[in-house]
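Example record used in the benchmark description.
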Amino acid sequence: MSALRSNKLTLAAVSGRAMYALLALLNLLSPKERASHRVARGVHYGDDRRQVLDIYAPRSGSGPWPVIHFIYGGSWADGERRYYEFVGRALAAAGYVVVIIDYRLVPTIEYPAFLEDCARGVAWVAEHIAAHGGDPTRIALMGHSAGAYNAVMLILAGRYLTPGLTGRIRAFVGLSGPYDFYPFDVPVSLRTFGAVRDPRQTQPVNLVRSGLPPMLLVSGDADKLVYPRNTVALAKGLRAAGNSVVEMHYAGLGHAGTLLALGAWGRNRGPVLRDTIAFLKAHL
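Model output (structure tokens):
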């Protein structure tokens, strides 16, 4: 059975637009995290209009704080960083500098350009984040859905980050990520990866090796878009290679639920934020 089921992904664009409308409303109406604030907005890490980022930081103290580089999802075809203010503020309130990037999307670009953008964002962080209170030697990559795929591929593929940058990545957190979805048999994967010459090399489960940073892999057992078996498969491979991995499955949470649980209005659904912060404090 495919990890991504076609009758769900044909509705991805519709459900995506609905989710962004919901995120915009929740960001507008929800109380802001008082312990954090946005310290930079619309900073370019490249020349393209999509190569921009926002930065969130704790409101008090001077750092340097560890850094979380967050990459949102959207089927590699949709998304804007402004919808994820609640993520930046929630994580920054816990004592982190948080960077949220926009990146180029399909069909304007093809694989692996979105990965190259994400890597370029990490390079910007390593060079410039100290000016915003961040510690460029303590970086965690984090993402939701397609963003979790992008983030873990930067670690696993070995060709997007320079050796100097790789050593600064201390941890990874993946929320509801697709890690094992070949063969491609649904519109989203066919559109994004169907023309790749060696498609097996697009799959995180096929790129696992020893010596990787600790990873927290999160899924909801009610996820019908990216099945939890993606998390199970990657965690199994990581353990077999001798890596440190924490695997968490939350009862009743769907695909968006693991993300929404980071916000004040979703934390009663599952302790995703609490568990994420505990993991990061142990490894950053």
